[in-house]
Amino acid sequence: MTRTDLETHGMWDRLDPFDRKFIAALPGGRVLYVEGSFTASIYPIGTTGSTYDVPVAD
To answer: Hey, is 57 helix, strand or coil?
Structure first.
């Protein structure tokens, strides 16, 4: 997903300002969004191909 996708689905506002800035600064700005019954996380993909867990507040 891109920032636009996250905003469209109401997920962008659930991120804290630091995480929004981090995602906006990513080359390509794409993340994997995983949502379960009780929690959700996004996994930004860095330039090295590594992913980072960023919990999403409910």
So the answer is: coil
Torsion-angle region of 49 (φ positive above 0: left; ψ -120 to 50: alpha; else: beta):
left
Euclidean distance between CA atoms 42 and 11, whole angstroms: 10
- Two structure tokens written together for 17: 């300002």
pTM exceeds cut of 0.85: no
| Distance in Å from the first CA to the final CA of the chain | 19
Task: State the CB neighbour count (10 A cutoff) for residue 24.
Answer: 10
CA angle 49, 27, 14 (to 5 degrees): 95
pLDDT digits (tens, 9 = 90+) for 24-53: 888 778 888 888 777 777 787 666 666 666
Q: Which residue has the higher pLDDT, 21 or 39?
A: 21
